[in-house]
Hints:
- By secondary structure, the chain is α+β, with helices and mostly antiparallel strands.
- The protein has helices at about 10-15, 20-25, 40-50, 55-60, 70-80, 110-120, 125-140, 160-165, 170-180, 195-205, 210-220, 230-245, 245-255, 260-280, and strands at about 25-30, 30-35, 85-90, 95-100, 155-160, 190.
- The chain starts with 11 loop residues before the first helix and ends in a 5-residue tail after the last helix.
Amino acid sequence: xxxxxxxxxxxxxxxxxxxxxxxxxxxxxxxxxxxxxxxxxxxxxxxxxxxxxxxxxxxxxxxxxxxxxxxxxxxxxxxxxxxxxxxxxxxxxxxxxxxxxxxxxxxxxxxxxxxxxxxxxxxxxxxxxxxxxxxxxxxxxxxxxxxxxxxxxxxxxxxxxxxxxxxxxxxxxxxxxxxxxxxxxxxxxxxxxxxxxxxxxxxxxxxxxxxxxxxxxxxxxxxxxxxxxxxxxxxxxxxxxxxxxxxxxxxxxxxxxxxxxxxxxxxxxxxxxxxxxxxxxxxxxx
Length: 286
């Protein structure tokens, strides 16, 4: 949706959202409304998916499972989009990598109705896919321990030992390298709630690859599935701009509304305050 050729310092809104109308073509019926059924919008969603392969629900029997790895895909998504799907990995204090399984599996990424409207799936395929996603979420969430304390649920591993223990599930060295880059992560890993983590790995291992891929791809698209009402497009774009580009957005506002007179006034006030403090510190009371 961005227009990188436009400098964010000149026009940040256009820089961040200038291609919104191309990804979300609008129709004019008195008010502008996003047309979720527009072919260009659906193609834009498919383009995001194609960065990581194909959506099995869309291509059906033609989907090639041999080219898919769920943990490689979630690592690549985290590296590019910063979105944690299934596993959440962070570097803290430089020396440690904190690794945990996500616990927010209760909300469905999409409904059967969404699958029909956004992707053109038949009613039967949409219902089946939605049911498979629901079953997977239940399996992933089955090991959640509620909101209790995690005290005592931290397991510390060196990378080699963690790899040895879970070698049947994923390659941790490659997984972390895809996220953080080769040799740019600590070799000491802190596993949070290992019992739940192990359950998630077992659940993913027992889940058909097509369901894994549908879940990951559709979770990635959650924030792109916009059913905008009149006037909502600007609000949605503004909120996401603040969410993902807060510092740049603040600078853009500053650049737009700054003035030499205002800056001079602020500088003069600051100099007066400094002068008063200097007098106080030197004992020159009023």
